[in-house]
Amino acid sequence: MAAPRGFALWGYCDREWSRVIRGCRLPGFRSCWPGCPLGARLMSQEKRGTETHFGFETVSEEEKGGKVYQVFESVAKKYDVMNDMMSLGIHRVWKDLLLWKMHPFPGTQLLDVAGGTGDIAFRFLNYVQAQYRRKQKRQLKAQQNLSWEEIARKYQNEEDSLGGSHVMVCDINKEMLKIGKQKASAQGYKTGLAWVLGDAEELPFDDDKFDVYTIAFGIRNVTHIDRALQEAHRVLKPGGRFLCLEFSQVNNPVISRLYDLYSFQVIPVLGEVIAGDWKSYQYLVESIRRFPSQEEFKEMIEDAGFQKVTYESLTSGIVAIHSGFKL
Predict the structure, then answer these.
(1) CB neighbours of 253 closer than 8 A, spacing ≥ 6?
(2) DSSP letters along 32-62, please?
């Protein structure tokens, strides 16, 4: 006997609704839809919303912040030495390339986030100062009637040598900032530089304040990368630039295998021998592998509101420099 018309209509509508729902790309539902009851999906989604990764370990979002803080508190004193050992010194070239790509001009206001040890800040000051001095020499050559005292006064004015440029170093870790301040004092950096304790996900600055925002090897350690990117967009002036130097995905299979071998078998050992800390460097290696690919991170930057987003892979993709503008 044929099914009643009402039941047939209900069955048709149910099938069509299921087809529509499967076709919708709702955030968090796409991968878990097939064969999964709605209640279980919602509970799973809620649970995932409070969990994140700490390297290869799954932890609560609240727990990750404390664990990352402990890692960098532990490695702060040996941070620069370990960077040289782990990268064979190549990290210096990567940071130089970041400044070359930034190409700051005198008067640039830079915010360097997660920059506690000052590597980017010091390079920025050196770059701007060198650029300003070159400009000054050209001007002095054009002014033949200046006295020796006037020329000497121009060269001795350290504040003028930066052309009004300033870098604000913001880091969430007190120990990292302490090391950075010690380095600044030892290397003679006195002007155009300030240090602020702050969270990349909730920056303590007004809107539209900086010309350039940089973050080098730090964004993979924040709990919510999307929030950090939104904050970067907020504090930049219209026309401002976002620059991120971060470990990425190696694009050569042979180099990738060698890189994995070195990362997991050598770097934690170096951490134990040099810094007496195996676990922290094991986490750093694992955190690199959990970070999004170049293309995925590019999309995240675009989602935060940046435009003209590009990236350049360095050293076969071991690291990449991402760039975007607030337009």
Answers:
(1) none
(2) T-TT--HHHHHHHHHHHHTEEEETTEEEEHH
Of 84, 114, 71, 83, the C-alpha closest to 282 is 71
pLDDT digits (tens, 9 = 90+) for 184-212: 999 999 899 999 999 999 999 999 999 99
Name, in order, each residue with C-beta under 8 angstroms of 322's C-beta and a sequence gap of 6 or more. Answer: 242, 243, 244, 246, 294, 297, 298, 301, 309, 310, 311
Q: Give me the helices (H) in the chain, please.
A: 5-23, 38-49, 61-75, 79-87, 90-102, 119-142, 148-156, 174-187, 225-235, 253-265, 267-270, 278-290, 294-303
237, 209 contact by CB (below 8 A) = yes
Length of the chain: 327
Q: Which of 321, 318, 326 is nearest to 289 (CA)?
A: 318
Q: Are 111 and 242 in contact (CB under 8 A)?
A: no
Helix (H, G, I), strand (E, B) or coil at 300: helix
* Residue 1 structure tokens: 């006997």
Sheet containing 109-113, strands listed edge to edge, beginning at the edge strand earlier in sequence: 193-197, 166-171, 109-113, 210-216, 236-247, 319-325, 307-314
Neighbours of 304 (CB within 10 A): 21
pLDDT digits (tens, 9 = 90+) for 251-302: 899 999 999 999 889 988 888 888 787 787 887 888 888 899 999 999 999 9
Residue 282 has a pLDDT of 84
User: How far does Cα 320 stand from its chain's mean position?
Assistant: 11
Q: Whose structure tokens read 């050293």? A: 315
Q: Whole-angstrom Cα distance, residue 9 to residue 11?
A: 5
The model's pTM: 0.76
Contact predicate 239/209, CB 8 Å: no
By three-state DSSP, how is residue 239 classified?
strand
Tell me, what's the pLDDT at 200? 96
- C-alpha 39/C-alpha 53 separation (Å) is 24
